[in-house]
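Quick start: read one record
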Amino acid sequence: MAAKKVSFMCTAFRDGFQSVYGARVFTKDFLPAVQAARDAGINYFEAGGGARFQSLYFYCNEDAFAMMDSFRETAGPDANLQTLSRGVNVVGLESQSSDIIKLHAELFKKHGITTIRNFDALNDVQNLVYSGQCIVDAGLKHQVCVTLMELPPGCTGAHDAEFYEQTLRGILDAGIPFDSVCFKDASGTAVPSKVFETIQRARKILPGDTFIHFHTHETAGISVATNLAALDAGADAIDLSLAPCSGGTCQPDVIVMWHALRGSKYDLDLDIEKVRDAEEVFKECMADYYLPPEATTVEPLIPWSPMPGGALTANTQMMRDHGIMDKYPDLIKAMGDVVRKGGFGTSVTPVSQFYVQQALKNVMLGPWKEIAEPYGQMVLGYFGKTPVPPDPDVVKLAAEQLGLEPTTQAPIERNDADPAKGVEAATKQLKENNIEVTDENIFIVATCKDKGLDFLLGKAEIGVRKDKKQATPAAAPAATGPTRYSLSVNNKSVTVHIDGDVATVNGKTYRVSIEGHAAASGGSAPAAAGPLTRVIAQMPGKVYDLVTPPGTAVKEGQTILVLEAMKMEVQVSAPVSGTVQEIKVAKGDMVQTGDELATIA
């Protein structure tokens, strides 16, 4: 009996990039690998969306629409190019208004995309209704999604086969049009037996010819086993990747899965030698990029803290940027408690990022001392309905700190009523900044906010790690110098990190020659008439906004400045009432925990 041909999507150039390099990859560097994969007979690619939309504007100073155009040209006219969308969030971390959701589908069709995989991290079906219709109306194929994960040990109430079946029935009952169904496990934690039962149940309630796709990661070390379970249950396709973006936090490698299927009833139907050649091309393309060690290994603790591969390396990249990689083990441990109390939203973007942000605050500031705004909004219902009710104490804390009431209103309804969101608001921003008003520019500003505007104004920064020495964490300094110096230059505080012959000054790197060893100095503040209170950074970040200039009278708890850390805005408040005497940092500066930010007299 002939082996059943297994379809697969090559995720190397989207999820692979997100899972290994935090999605920070220049287009020109990887296109030769796309061509090599095409020449090896691969014609189904993940080609954008998800973090590979925002990251191009945030870190690469590139246009994501131009990247999609280049991908289409390289892959050829017949390739199935698929992107990833987050329901009403589309390709942003915030939910969007209906006109932006519609524009998303139209623009991705315009720029060469064939299929959009559309998911909601909370498995709130209502968040898929309008977005799915827009995808179909634009002439794209809609792959509707149910998101999976394993709950931390000891947790019950959702994320079992019955829960996934009910989510799928909700999709069918809502009449959402779709071309295929995906079961997506971004953390790679769903156990094989549960995957088998889930897809087996799906086969019974879906029309017989429905195309079922399964997605997982190797993060917990069980991806090959779960792929096999999915196939045995009736899945038609799986997701596979190519080295160096395979295994570890990524999908299993094409070659690994080919090997696992040898002698079985399944066959990938590939010229495996050509795939080997394509991987060599890809490895050469990525040779200059820093390969984080955590991206290449299985993490046994992930079942206790379901951290998706894409979120794991994206966040460790930022933790390296801020010099806090030593906090990574604590962050992983804190994730479990955050998931338990957050209502069991699936650990996939954007919810995975909400989990990370809250876990980091719990690590840096103390457990549940401060609620991260997006996490708080999630438990209060502002992203939709969570699978189970969140912890009532956390809900109360979120309401108090954010000044918001719990809501059951659909996000799209609230966004449509918000004058700060939508096409009209984005158009106004473009005109105010003398930027050409195009559909693409409207969408960039709507989904990427200030960083999208910076890109269009030519102010975007590069945050791609291609120099391995620059990628060394500040927490592991070379023996030739201390980790950090705080200097006062022309009455301005400057933080300098030394790592071998690399100095990082306010986020910018320089080659230096170090001779001698000076003791760290905190600088001196100018004299004041009364006692000074120092405002200290409680966590690392980049100065995002300066709210109160020197001379401003402030009350205790009033915001003085805002830091950006781990994709969230962190307000720094006055510890006492008084007058701001000096601001020690400038917009764009990188600061570390313990750095002096301002003084109050």
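Residues 439-456 form the longest helix (18 residues).
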